[in-house]
Amino acid sequence: MIPTLQQALERRGYTSLTPVQEAVSDPELAGADLLVSAQTGSGKTVGFGIAIASTILEEDGRFARAGTPLALVIAPTRELALQVKRELTWLYGDAGAVLASCVGGMDMRDERRALERGAHIVVATPGRLRDHITRGSIDLSGVAAVVLDEADEMLDLGFREDLEFILQETPEERQTLLFSATVSKPIATLAQTYQTDAQRISTINKSEQHSDISYLSHVVAPHDVENAIINVLRFHEAPNAIVFANTRAAVNRLLTRLSNRGFQVVALSGELSQAERAGALQAMRDGRARICVATDVAARGIDLPNLDLVVHADLPSSHETLLHRSGRTGRAGRKGASALMVTPRSVRKAERLLRDAKLSAEWVDAPSADEVRGRDMERMLSDAVWTEEAPESQAETLAKLVESFSPEQLAAGYLRLWSAARSAPEELTDVASVDARKKKEDRVPFGPSVWFAIDGGRDAGADPRRLLPMLCKAGGIDKSAIGAIRIVGDKSYAEISQDKVDGFMATLGGEMALDDGSALERLNEAPNLPERSKPPFRKGGAPGGGKGRGGFGGGKPGYKGGDRGDYKGGGDRKSGGDYKSDRKPYRAREDSTDHPVKPRAAKPRPSGDKPAYDKPRGDKPRGDKAKFDKPRSDKPRGDKPKFDKPRSDKPRSDKPKGPPPPAGKPSSKKNKARGASDTSKRFTPPSKRG
Description:
One of its GO terms (molecular function) is helicase activity. The protein is α/β, with parallel strands linked by helices. Helix content is 33%, strand content 13%. It is built from 23 helices and 18 strands. The strands form 3 sheets. A 7-stranded parallel beta sheet has the order 3-4-2-5-6-1-7, sandwiched between helices.
């Protein structure tokens, strides 16, 4: 390994390299194109930093004076790009590297000035780097190495065109490294197009994948998801935790809920500015916040220290997203936990995600309030504060406390202080009891009952939704003691469980009236009420069967065969009766007694011998009668000219071809032009006449 990089690694505390770092630092692969798939959190950033070192460094392991960029590192998000820049800064610190960043959300003028001063390595996001290229503020002619970090995510986010544009602007003789968690078909196509004899490296062992992460699936009631998240956070008490939600609205809701419960929480979502996102991440790194609520895009590629817990408030859309979310924890040899909040309706989806990701999860109930309190007790008793010696400066204070309070009082005071610094756990609903309540088949019959009549019915505006709470309040019962409520014109009737009737009447008192003054009367038997009837089902459309869409089905009163027009058949149609040859005959003709219809003849009837409708439209044949009720003329249609008045007395051949132009106004430009072109109307001066 190059000495300057070796010194930086030792100073950072590296005693050995991770598998992916060992693989890419093989001397036989120096300068070669690489297609690398590695597990998240496996040290890929340091890995590709080592892999490109032999290409961009001088023989002495240092950089020459900074000029045009020698290496490009492209990442999908701003946070990941800035994180990569920080890692490469200490890795190449002894080599004298100058790094610059080109990421969205930053001042482009500052980035342009940094590029003008010169940089050895540029870390960028695809969109912002393309902007610099198109504006001519970056020169890529000297690029010797290009690294695409999280290439699969960049393709998923729609950066394919930007990546292809950037790669085409770089020299063909370059070292290209693609790092991706999975090598899908689009990744393979990109590698085949822009890499030369790429070496395939995979350090993912499917049997041991995510061995440092324990997966927990908690089935909770839909209304208890947020309460379960609170209990999970309290149960684990991770130094840092991240909660994933699918939408910005869900992020904002969880942020508000957790803040109100006393958690030190920040949010990451696309609606935040770059400064706000950077501030949130810095708060997580320096300990001012312990929980980050984020969407998938905002949290892509971020690396937070001591992140031991990932909570999926919403299930991810794919198993790849599940792996990327969970990969935020269990990094660099640390143990981590990934908790999925699963509602009863989403159990199958959760199982499918885990199966596709080749993960096994432990299906357990979400931590209850008692379990959280028990874990708090364990942490409190094992706290190092009990074994540490008190400093001499506190001796006087300790003596005064012991003198003033009993051991029980001191213990109670300490316990209150301990509990005040932590959010109280939530009581969760048993999912089994929720499912039981939803099963209608398990509903118990109402049993024996007594009916009561109440003054006022539908005519007075009575409503069951208003009557039910009035009965409960006036009679001192709950809604389970009330069966059916029936409302008719001038009365209302309520069914009360028989075992509750005595208490109901005692609470009502002798007046037997509700709060609004409506009097009640106990009935000896159930009221004889008419059965609720459903509106009759009418096959074929409009009620009455007259002129609705289905009226032509036959047999309905008010049907007139000719109302639908003459397209159904008739004497004047060229197709005649053959138009309906594939249709079933009207059933009305078979049932009618007024106009019996003979069966169809074997021989084809000439079109027009008989109308297709039961009642002819007129006494005359269809062809002899005009289409309108009043004929236009007594003469045959063919003997009358098309227009009432002939256009001209001259023969048609003497007229110019084509329709006459519109007259318009005499003073119009067109009419003036026509007059000028007509030689018969031109003015001849008197001197020229004769």
